[in-house]
Amino acid sequence: MDTRWSLPGRSPSASAGPVSVTVTDMSRQRLCARPGCGAPATASLVFQYAVRKVWLDDLGEAQPYKIDLCSRHADRLCVPRGWTGDDRRAVAAAPVAAPVAS
Ligand SMILES: [Zn+2]
Predict the structure, then answer these.
(1) Helix or strand holding residue 73 (H, E)
(2) Rounded to the nearest whole angstrom, what is the distance from the C-alpha of residue 24 to the centroid of ligand 1?
(3) Of 28, 30, 50, 100, which has the highest C-beta tally within 10 A?
């Protein structure tokens, strides 16, 4: 008994076109990581359990260990008891004259 399959309309050159990959990461807007907050991130939070220390940095390159925060949440950041915090932002507490998107 012959049970060969017939493949309908198979075209070997159907997917021979160039594959275009769009890189949009560079200018992608990063948002505050706090739940319920969708404000643009302006700072990065880094913490290290080993030394119980928290750093606030200007928003730099996105890293898996960094937590993006908006300026409001960065300013309000509370360091856990027994931890020390270090605000290393260059623009800490400076008024930002940026247009506010409503
Ligand atoms: Zn926020």
Answers:
(1) helix 71-75
(2) 23
(3) 30
